[in-house]
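Late entry, written up from scratch paper. The run itself happened at the end of the previous shift, but nothing got recorded in the book at the time, so transcribing now.
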Amino acid sequence: QGRLVESGGDSVQAGGSLRLSCTVPGFSSSNCGVNWYRQATGKQREWVSQMSAGSITTYADFVKGRFTISQDKVRDTVYLQMNSLKPEDTGRYFCEPYGLRCPARGYRGQGTQVTVSS
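Output as recorded:
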């Protein structure tokens, strides 16, 4: 199973911002979409946002208006800009590529930790 790297997580105060990055090999091929998920300690994983292969973006209701997903195909990277962070945004964030013809389909990383204090 291939590996990818998520980065950008940190500890911030409520109201702060972070930008997460996910480098996906082959993302520039336009056959890949990417989902961001998060998992807080003791809780189930939850879906956060998606960038489709066609560059359509969608968001979970609890992040709409605060988070923005974007892409840089030159760098094979997908970003998650997180503003107005809340303590309930605390968790480990993971990106997952998808798509039948995506070279990185199935690749997984270690995630990146986001901690928001009140």
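The chain has a mean pLDDT of 94.
(Scratch paper discarded after transcription.)
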